[in-house]
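Ticket #4471: structure export looks truncated?
Reporter: QA, pipeline team
Priority: medium

Steps to reproduce: submit the single chain below to the structure queue and open the exported record.
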Amino acid sequence: MKKLLATALAATALLGSVFALGEKKSKQTVITVLDYQDATAPNSFDDNKLIWEAFEAAHPDIKIEREALFNEAFHQKAAAYAAAGKMPDVFYMWPAGRSTSIHEKKLAKDLTPFLKKEGLLDNYTKACVDPTAQASGYVAEIPFGLTVSHMMFVNKDVLDECGLSIPKTYDELKAQVPVLKAKGYETILMANMDDWVMQSCLFSMIAGRFGGADWADKIMAGKAKFTDKAFVDSVKFVKQLYDDGVLSDKTLATSYGDVVGQFASKKGAYLIDGDWRVGAFLTDMSTGKALISPADQAKNIELINFPAIPGEKLKNSNSATLGVGYGMSSKLKKNSKEEKAAWELIKWLSGPYCQQRRLDTGASFPSLTSGVSYDNLEPLSAKRGAFYNAQTATTPVFDSVFNSEVASVLNADLQALGLGKKTVDQVCKDVQAAFDSSK
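Actual output as written to the record:
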């Protein structure tokens, strides 16, 4: 009898502890998150622990249900949420472009009141909290920073082997093609199989060179068209890149996941991508290994803007935009525990700790004006900072101005142009038709 009683008392105590644990968990505020993450990138695995798990550890009253997707899988899921008219509580988003429908439908809350309430508004660069810079007309997301969508990575080792130097003009670049080919190298590597890379990482820069800083504003205002000379000349130049062999049609079969390995293994002299791609070559803190070692980063890799193009209007310009950030669902009830939890998470993701982490791993340069140290950057990250300082005029990024329907048509047509399946005039007419339909 005593043994039976003891067993019963133990079971009761255990059951009580289970109920207590359940009661504690039930008091947690659950928030849903749609995140953008390249699981193959260096340091991405540790981000799960050092950013997301660290937040939950510091906020035991908040539980995060997070879905992390990448590239088109992410955009398709975000579009499905937007079409349904309700986003997750917190979500990764763009200042316009791929997130245009989220902005236009007001599916993200204005974060300005939250920033003002806590005295944080002045902690960020003015451009990053400018309400007119986002498609919603207010601060729907706090950008990680400003981002340059075009960057040309140079492997000096390859150039030196071929007796070449960094070109200052397009003609000099074109002249390198047969020399590099004779040695078995591609000239420019790009991931043009993916349906956004060309328009964002190369064409946006070209359109700015031919059309000037306000080329996109003119089209949006109805004062210019995609069939006008400046845009036609931009598309013609893309065709010339393929015709001259500066861009190989092999790039049209190269995926975004493969291209960094190609550049790191010296399959080509140059890589064209966005500034964020620096992070792919840095040291993975969990393994201590890097696609390009810090020593090679310092000695052999340079970051440049595309050389001077014949007939360009705005010399040495480059395409740039506000960076991405996290938004909050406008469906969250004001002053609810879910809204408070969502803001705590966004404040964390936009704060000094996470911005320092992104700087150290090459994900982005900070939008914060203080609280972040630049002392321990790897050589390629330091060169990225110098690249920003050398910039002159900036021009729009195509998919940060025009919605995804227009950007997708342009990118698909530029791929077809490279394959010889579309003419320059067809590309321009198709994009104009897509723009007219989108309005």
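Status: closed, not a bug. The export was complete when the record was re-opened. Leaving a note from the reviewer for reference: The longest strand covers residues 29-36.
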